[in-house]
Write a structure and sequence with these properties.
single chain, two-stranded antiparallel sheet, about 40% strand
Length: about 170
Amino acid sequence: MVALCVVAWADAGGGLHWTAPSQWKVDPAARPMRAATYAVPAAAGDTDAGECVAYYFGKGQGGSTEANIQRWTSQFKDKSGQPVKNAQVKKSTVHGLPVTAIDASGTYTGAGGPMAPTHTDKPGYRLLGAIVEGPQGSLFFKFTGPAKTVAANQKAFDDMIASVAKP
């Protein structure tokens, strides 16, 4: 099991701060457009770990909330190979900030990303996402991994999103 102590308000992007789960390991490698990247330990029985990324592209950048929800949903196929239709989308407000959350599962086809030379479809995967609309632009949180790993960390993800606030 990976352990890491995270100081409150250690993570920030787009003029917003949040508190990451203490059991998630911060990936210190600098990557374009990523405010933070977290390695999420695999749940018992899963061979793959999860990954949660906080993206910040700048004010007015990164596309609309609806376009991102549509793109994330399109990265999952059902058992017949068709795009999933079971994604749940919910809107809420956290510390006065509009939040749109998504929960999708199936075969993940977006694991390689647009810049990766190849990717492998990942059956039995799940995505929890949240788009937080801040005054300096939106923050995009995307947590993907095996369904059991994501389920085991759902409360931690939800708590992290609930912590997003202006300084």
